[in-house]
């Protein structure tokens, strides 16, 4: 599988781009002309830089406004082409992209365009290069790959072929299956890009909102299936124009891009098994069966505060690790681990040093942990391992959001027996905690910078068999927070929400700033009877987040609630939502540390959301309890 990316797709100076592209695992690079023109180096020096990174220059682009021009513009176009061919010779690339003409003075006509390309093919042959014709979605006369192919077919020249770009085809809602009739050897390169669905000017949409395949809403897999069916074996390249990406990390963007290509070809290979393009061999997307545990790291002197909070939630300290300063707290099927290991080689200790007390790791139950690790590694996720002591299982793991750790557990004896083999039960007679009726982890919520959200959504959806819910805008007095969930399919046994913050003035942004980075900000714990749980929590000394009376007055009117029911919600600080399929109840803890909190939820019926309409009220209540700016931590 030959992978390539256009230099315009990622941020940074030219040398930085090449280094990031190579490190991410690409085998080729498209040189976007402006990147070349603004970099002070000769074509031969650029060619050497690419070669030093092990990169082939797959394409030089773009060449604009060529075909169908009246004289004297036509002659100038051929002169410009000859100069570009000379540069290509020094760059060491044999392919140039010519996009369909947008000039207002250009002349239409398939035969006229075909004649121009045949003549250009002769010129290209003399220089030992090829030209690829791409239909821009906003082209003046050619805006459809079917017309571009007809131009190439009539040009009938070995050095003239077509270039296909998923955005140009899919943004115009052209059936990608029309590609299947194009001979694979006449497709010179394939460019891939995704995008969120917007109803806007095609040029503006393309120039500002493209993203990596799998990060948007376009049927890029269907497009690539059609390409693969032609017998095409050339490079798969990314051409991404995105305002957000222009200020992002070149390394992270390149890694996202490479992961997206591997992911899309894995999907295509499973749907089109006879394709000629080689695709990495890996297990299918992993079914996540639920969260097995969440692990906090903290210091011994801070542990009591966290343990006290867990106690008010009805957790009992049930076991201690045989070899490490690690305690296990349980309730129902929920496992919370508190790690106070001070070993300098411990990742938990290092995480505490940077972030303070935080939920730095969690475990996902899967059918086959080894397969989960193999797939994650094939998709570029960094694997994680620490030295094991005698009797300790080596749990497959990767590093994920915020460099946190994601463990994979299954029913094999070594992994399913961890809780019995590595932990020793403690005497809980003196522990007065009693269950509050919490049964399992409903979902985890990770907070990240908004410009990282696409990265981590792709990370999860490419590794796990999940679906994305629609993005929701959460209004915070300090700015906007965007929230999107992923859920395992076919059943949502695993749920995770990603919350992206732009401004540190938001509650989520403050968590990022004061916790020094992306992390799990809250854990939602499920109950089958939230009113009974609320009473048990109160008896344990749990302090719920106080919600304004105005919220309940509005709630009663909005949903037509009986006053007695509304009073019961208010008395227990329970927030409420419902849809056509069911109801949702929420209680929030007060914040712990730098903005972490627990949520207790009950789902009734087939309610599938996360109480998004309640988020502004929750945030307002949390902000009222925030430590004033400048006040030292107690």
Automatic annotation (TrEMBL):
Known pathway: Aromatic compound metabolism; 3,4-dihydroxybenzoate biosynthesis
- The Enzyme Commission number assigned here is 4.2.1.118
Q: Which InterPro entries match?
A: 4OHPhenylPyrv_dOase_N (IPR041736), DSD (IPR043700), Glyas_Bleomycin-R_OHBP_Dase (IPR029068), IolE/XylAMocC-like (IPR050312), VOC_core (IPR037523), Xyl_isomerase-like_sf (IPR036237), Xyl_isomerase-like_TIM-brl (IPR013022)
Q: Which residues bind a divalent metal cation?
A: 134, 165, 191, 239
In Swiss-Prot or TrEMBL terms, this protein is called 3-dehydroshikimate dehydratase
- What does UniProt give as the signal peptide span? none
Keyword DNA damage present in the record's keywords: the answer is: no
Mind listing the UniProt keywords for this protein, alphabetically? Dioxygenase, Isomerase, Lyase, Metal-binding, Oxidoreductase
Q: Which GO terms describe its molecular function?
A: dioxygenase activity; isomerase activity
- Keyword Lyase, does the record have it? yes
**What residues does the VOC domain cover?**
290-421, 440-590
């Amino acid at each position: 599988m030959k992978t390539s990316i256009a230099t315009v797709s990622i941020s940074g100076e030219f040398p930085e781009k090449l280094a990031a592209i190579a490190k991410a695992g690409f085998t080729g690079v498209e040189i976007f002309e402006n990147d070349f023109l603004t970099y002070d180096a000769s074509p031969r020096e650029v060619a050497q830089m690419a070669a030093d990174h092990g990169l082939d220059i797959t394409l030089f682009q773009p060449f604009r406004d060529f075909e169908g021009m009246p004289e004297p513009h036509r002659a100038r176009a051929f002169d410009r082409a000859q100069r570009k061919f000379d540069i290509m010779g020094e760059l060491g690339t044999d392919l140039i992209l010519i996009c369909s003409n947008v000039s207002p003075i250009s002349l239409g006509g398939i035969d006229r365009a075909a004649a121009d390309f045949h003549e250009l093919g002769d010129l290209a042959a003399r220089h030992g290069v090829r030209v690829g014709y791409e239909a821009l979605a906003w082209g003046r006369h050619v805006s459809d790959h079917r017309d571009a192919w007809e131009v190439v077919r009539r040009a009938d020249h070995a050095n003239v072929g077509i270039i296909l770009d998923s955005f140009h085809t899919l943004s115009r809602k052209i059936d990608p299956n029309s590609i299947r009739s194009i001979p694979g050897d006449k497709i010179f390169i394939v460019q891939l890009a995704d995008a969120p669905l917007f109803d806007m000017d095609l040029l503006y949409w393309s120039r500002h909102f493209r993203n990596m395949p799998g990060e948007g809403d376009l049927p890029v897999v269907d497009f690539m299936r059609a390409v693969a069916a032609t017998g095409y074996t050339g490079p798969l390249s990314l051409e991404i124009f995105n305002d957000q990406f222009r200020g992002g990390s070149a390394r992270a963007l390149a890694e996202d891009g490479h992961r997206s290509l591997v992911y899309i070809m894995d999907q295509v290979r499973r749907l089109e098994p006879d394709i000629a393009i080689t695709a990495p061999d890996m297990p299918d997307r992993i079914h996540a069966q639920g969260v097995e545990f969440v692990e906090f790291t903290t210091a011994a002197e801070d542990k009591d505060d966290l343990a006290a909070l867990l106690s008010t939630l009805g957790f009992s300290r049930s076991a201690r690790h045989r070899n490490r300063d690690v305690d296990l707290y349980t309730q129902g099927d929920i496992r919370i681990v508190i790690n106070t290991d001070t070993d300098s080689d411990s990742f938990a200790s290092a995480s505490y040093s940077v972030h303070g007390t935080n939920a730095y790791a969690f475990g996902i139950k899967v059918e086959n942990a080894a397969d989960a690790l193999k797939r994650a590694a094939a998709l570029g996720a960094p694997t994680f391992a620490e030295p094991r002591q005698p009797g300790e299982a080596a749990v497959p793991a990767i590093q994920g959001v915020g460099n946190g750790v994601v463990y994979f557990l299954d029913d094999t004896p070594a992994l399913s027996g961890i809780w019995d083999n590595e932990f020793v039960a403690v005497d809980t007679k003196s522990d007065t905690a009693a269950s509050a009726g919490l049964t399992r982890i409903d979902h985890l919520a990770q907070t990240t910078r908004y410009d990282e959200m696409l990265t981590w959504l792709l990370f999860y959806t490419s590794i796990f068999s999940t679906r994305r819910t629609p993005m929701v805008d959460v209004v915070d007095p300090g700015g906007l927070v965007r929230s999107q969930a992923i859920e395992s399919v076919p059943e949502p046994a695993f749920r995770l929400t990603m919350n992206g913050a732009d401004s540190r003035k938001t509650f989520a942004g403050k968590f990022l700033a004061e916790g020094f980075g992306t992390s799990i900000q809250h854990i939602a714990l499920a109950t089958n009877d939230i009113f009974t749980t609320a009473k048990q929590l109160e008896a344990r000394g749990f302090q719920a987040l106080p919600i304004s009376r105005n919220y309940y007055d509005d709630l009663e009117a909005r949903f037509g609630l009986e006053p007695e029911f509304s009073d019961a919600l208010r008395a227990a600080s329970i927030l409420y939502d419902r849809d056509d399929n069911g109801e949702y109840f929420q209680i929030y803890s007060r914040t712990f540390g730098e903005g972490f909190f627990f949520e207790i939820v009950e789902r009734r019926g087939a309610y599938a959301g996360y109480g998004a309409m309640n988020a502004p009220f929750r945030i307002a209540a949390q902000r009222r309890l925030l430590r004033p700016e400048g006040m030292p931590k107690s």
